[in-house]
Amino acid sequence: MTYRTSRRTARTLLTTAVVTAGLIAGNATAHAEDDPRVEEIRQAIAALKPLVQQPPCDQVPEPERWLDAGTPDKGSSNVVISAHRGANTLAPENTLKSYEYAFAYGVDLVEVDVQQTKDGRFVALHDSTVDRTTNGTGNITDLTYQQVRALNAADYEPWKGGEYDPAQIASLEEILALAKRVGAGVELDVKGSVTEEGELAELVGRYGLIEESIWNSADPRVFQAEPGARTIYNRDSWEPNYLLYEIGQVSKVYGSRLDEYTPESIVAAHDSCGIVMPHAYDAGGDQEVAQFELAREMGADGVQTNQPALVVAAAGEAVDSRLRVRRAKGGHSSEVCLVNADNGLGFPGKTVRLTKGWKKQLDLVTADGGCATVPAVNWRGSRVTFAGDGAVHASRTKLH
């Protein structure tokens, strides 16, 4: 996701002048005040602010800590986790299955790349063309909804030929319905194909997800349709910290790369009653946990991640699980499924153990939907156990 002042003006309407330059003394501030981008943002937010409904903020600002934070802030006790394009290492990105797996791990939000088709429908796709991730070609704006939905969204590595091939590009309605069912939100990364942002906001509102969700857009039509919509401001390294505080008058969520942040900038965001959730994935997949831990040390409230299971474990927020038995005709056990105990969504790639008597044991690895097939031998009466891991608590059942 990118949300910077260099993009179109509608995406930079994010601040108002509520703090005078006198709050922050020194040459650095004077120099920053001369930066024309400061005034650009301030003028833009002046146009946006009358449209935005923000909850009251009772935080007392500490502008001296915007220069030297001392001990960093402590981020939210409930870590805010957004799954980038769903759980995109477990299933093809922006497919319904990737969002189901992300919500299985109890994340607060799933990030959705919103595109608009030729006939005005909203779908989840990152690129402006369908070439990279499907078996089709062409711009999303030249294809109808039905044409997009007919494509195979798993026609790329590492998914091609695997258990999720074929897959379907998810519609936004499917994702919103899923989020509503599990009581979570969506982070809407609104792409350039979207021309009807007001209609998009109304759609999210019909699912009752305005308060739970975040918009990576500041198009005025979003707020005209839904004044309570929350925007995410993706920080750049140039903004002085007092400006981040001012931005909080209309945007209560701060994103972008972790290396754009310092403990001081996080203090300024918190002083405006904002939450900070930078990317954990920019340094590469093997660094996500380290990036998450660094963000928390700096005072961040959460992160956006490609690997929700790892971050949930690192956050100490493991979810409860349940083992469910599916029966074939005739009453014989045929599948065991490891699912989230609260929302019923499955965990793939987990080992469950069947034990019968003292010596007979069999380990199965869950796959699509968190399920594993029981071999066609008599395992009736077996104990089924999942030992648990950092992200998912242990559970057990019995094959009757």
From TrEMBL:
Residues 1-32 form the signal peptide. InterPro entries: GP_PDE_dom, PLC-like_Pdiesterase_TIM-brl. CDD domains: GDPD_AtGDE_like. Gene3D superfamilies: Phosphatidylinositol (PI) phosphodiesterase. Residues 79-315 form the GP-PDE domain. This is GP-PDE domain-containing protein. The keyword Signal applies. The keyword Nucleotidyltransferase does not apply. Coiled coil: none annotated. Keywords: Signal.
